Amino acid sequence: MPITPVGKVWMDGDLVDWGDAKVHVLSHAMHYGSGVFEGIRCYETARGSAVWHLDEHIRRLFRSAKLYHLDIPFSAEALSEAVKETIRANELSACYIRPLVFRGYGEMGVNPLSAPVNVVIAVWPWGAYLGEQALEQGVRVKISSWRRNDQNALPAAAKATGQYINGVLAKIEAIKAGYDEAIMLNQMGFITDGTGENVFVVRQGVLLTPPTQSGCLDGITRATIMSIARDLGYEVREENLVRTDLYNADEAFFTGTAAEVTPVREVDDRVVGEGTRGPVTKEIQGTFFAATKGEIEQYASWLAPVQ
Ligand SMILES: Cc1ncc(COP(=O)(O)O)c(C=O)c1O
Fold first, then answer.
1. Pocket test for ligand 1, best of 59, 197, 221, 257 (most atoms within 8 A of CB)
2. Considering 124, 149, 175, which residue would you say is the last residue of a domain?
């Protein structure tokens, strides 16, 4: 998806012009994928712009950094404030937010420990990740022939830049075969997640999603949807799933900051349920979008006002 340039990028404490937000080609992260990042959204609400689950995202950024012994030279509070400052500086009412912490320029070789740590926050307007139409009609998915990174090779608990080359392989395979997205299995053959989304299945009114032990990302939207679904009276279970659970589901959908709640209408050329957004998906998606707009008082604390 193309990036829409805006005015300023936050770099190591300063707001710099979009065109000046550059790094050296010999930066450590360019060669070894030694960075950690987040994807966050800011939504427009009746009370002004607000960042969705800001604290959770910043906490996950710090957990990812800890795993790689990356010492972030800012506090969580300072980074949360910097996110809001960057949105204000760009005068955006709704946007995608990309904080990135990476090993910078100065050291070469795999040992990253002496390389400097840089922090950037970029924001830009970003629509529906899998397309506007997909939110209603759903996407076509392929179970990838590429397995998800094993937990003891590259830990799913970290949202690290280098780890995404695994998803890149799966995404390319799916796109070249004419699908919209890929879902990866773990080494045991259980479902993990999409290349940028968690997966839910609806079977006889019960919601099922793989446990984080499967190797999926501990998605913040996944947790949000589990809360919303339980509040709506649905039973939600974290269970290992195999590919046929997707083929035979009544409904299936993706969750993610970028993808929000996107129905899955087909998996490996098998139509899922009625082949369109099912009634449970529709109810949950509707509640999710209403919550992001600040329309549900019960979920107001999930929104951090930008002003
Ligand atoms: C591999 C993967 N799975 C799941 C997700 C969904 O996570 P979240 O809801 O926190 O955005 C993402 C996106 O961050 C992801 O990259």
1. 197
2. 124
